[in-house]
């Protein structure tokens, strides 16, 4: 239950915060996570929503989102996509109907649906 909640919370927390001291955009994440881990964790929700929940995304918009996230994490898009797939694989056993509803809501709100 705690893991499922943290997956939903972390994925929902793809909303970035602007650090007041240095102006950098930072993902919300548990202490000790790298930027790549945090951004990829949220992207893992997108991957699982597509493959496990049947959500049909506008691929151009998802690629744009992944490109921006990769830039924020300081890695290439290819490396980011790899990290997102790894995160999705770790999260897969915890995907529920609630996860699917949350993912669809996030996609609708962000205009990512096909």
Question: Can you lay out the helices and strands and say which pair or pack?
Answer:
Layout: H1 2-12, E1 17-18, E2 25-26, H2 35-52, H3 59-73, H4 77-91, H5 97-110
Antiparallel strand pairs: 1-2
Helix pairs in contact: 1-2, 1-5, 2-3, 2-4, 2-5, 3-4
Task: Explain what the structure shows.
This protein is mainly alpha-helical and 114 residues long. The protein contains five helices and two strands; from the N terminus they run H-E-E-H-H-H-H. It has helices at residues 2-12, 35-52, 59-73, 77-91, 97-110, and strands spanning 17-18, 25-26. It has a two-stranded antiparallel sheet. The longest helix has 18 residues, at 35-52.
Distance between the termini: 31 Å
Low-confidence stretches: 8-23
Helical stretch tally: 5
> Sheet with the most strands?
2 strands, antiparallel
Instruction: Report the average pLDDT across residues.
Output: 82
Outline? globular
Radius of gyration: 13 Å
The helix content, as a percent range, equals 55-70%
**β-strand amount:** under 5%
Structural class: mainly alpha
Strand tally, please? 2
Domain tally: 1
N-to-C order of helices and strands: HEEHHHH
Could you give the order of strands across the largest sheet? 1-2
Q: What descriptors fit this protein?
A:
globular; 64% helix; single chain; 114 residues; 4% strand; 5 helices; two-stranded antiparallel ribbon; mainly alpha
Question: What is this structure, in a nutshell?
Answer:
With 114 residues, the protein is mainly α. It has five helices and two strands; from the N terminus they run αββαααα. Mean pLDDT is 82; it is low at 8-23.
């Amino acid at each position: 239950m705690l893991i499922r909640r943290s997956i939903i919370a972390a994925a929902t927390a793809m909303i970035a915060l602007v650090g007041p001291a240095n102006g950098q955009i930072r993902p919300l994440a548990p202490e000790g996570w790298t930027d790549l881990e945090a951004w990829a964790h949220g992207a893992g929700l997108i991957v699982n929503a597509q493959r496990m929940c049947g959500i049909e995304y506008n691929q151009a918009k998802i690629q744009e989102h992944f490109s921006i996230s990769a830039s924020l994490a300081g890695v290439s898009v290819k490396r980011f996509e790899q990290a997102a797939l790894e995160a999705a694989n770790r999260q897969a056993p915890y995907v529920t109907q609630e996860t699917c509803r949350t993912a669809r809501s996030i996609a609708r709100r962000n205009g990512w649906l096909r």
